[in-house]
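Students often ask what a holo structure prediction actually looks like on paper. The answer is less mysterious than it sounds. You provide the chain, you provide the ligand, and the output is a string of discrete structure tokens encoding the 3D arrangement of the protein together with magnesium ion.
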Amino acid sequence: MIMEIRDLYASVGEREILHGISLKVAQGEFHVVMGPNGSGKTTLAKAIMGHPGVKITGGEILVDGKSINDLSPDKRAKLGLFLQFQNPVEINGVGFVNFIKAAMESVSGGTINTKEMMNDIKGYTSKLKIDNGIVGRSLNDGFSGGEKKKGEILQMALLKPKIAILDEPDSGLDIDAIKVVAENINDVSKKENIGLVMITHYNRILSYMKPQFVHILVDGRLVYGGGAEAVDEIEKGGYDKYINKSV
Ligand SMILES: Nc1ncnc2c1ncn2[C@@H]1O[C@H](COP(=O)(O)OP(=O)(O)OP(=O)(O)O)[C@@H](O)[C@H]1O
Ligand SMILES: [Mg+2]
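The corresponding structure tokens follow.
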């Protein structure tokens, strides 16, 4: 699968946040998106997944050459897109396991064998070092910051998307958890040939993961597209050299 974003303009409310973004991601590739707070990274992630709060005002998002601009998020998920939220929402009353099962059945269009799914969940809670007790709880309800982020990676592992947008999978995680999350993202994406678009602020997670492409978003525009060498430069010098430039 190939996802192509062509000259995308998007607004939140009355305000235009994205001013002409172009980006191409193929299954199996690993892209990183960095950029200052408020530059539009989450807005881009939401636009890709079809979040109702983000309005596309120009340009196109294509999956295998077909526009998905008018598709609802569930249809985008069926095509193989997945979004890990920066701030996962707590949904009291919706069981973690029921939610995952419903999502898997919706995406696959078939019936999921509960026993196999529970085995898979158990395997991933162990790999991700999550207390298995979250399995019996409501979705994200009272989960710690780290449990929420790990829970999203567990969902990715079970849903097996073709392209996953990961919005800061490392924020709020302790040093050991960053390594665990990075290793699991690596393993799952390699095993399932998932294309990754990972938003992050820090190079720590990138000491465990090797992106092929790095993009820098400043004020709703991509100002750098190139190799991972930019990550160390940003760590040393911040975004100064990228501000007021565009590619
Ligand atoms: N509902 C909203 N109403 C008004 N402005 C909004 C709304 N949602 C987002 N914005 C604005 O859009 C801009 C981009 O926000 P976005 O969340 O995409 O940034 P980001 O790059 O993900 O930042 P961070 O690194 O802090 O997560 C910000 O200025 C934000 O305040
Ligand atoms: Mg964000």
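The mean pLDDT is 96.
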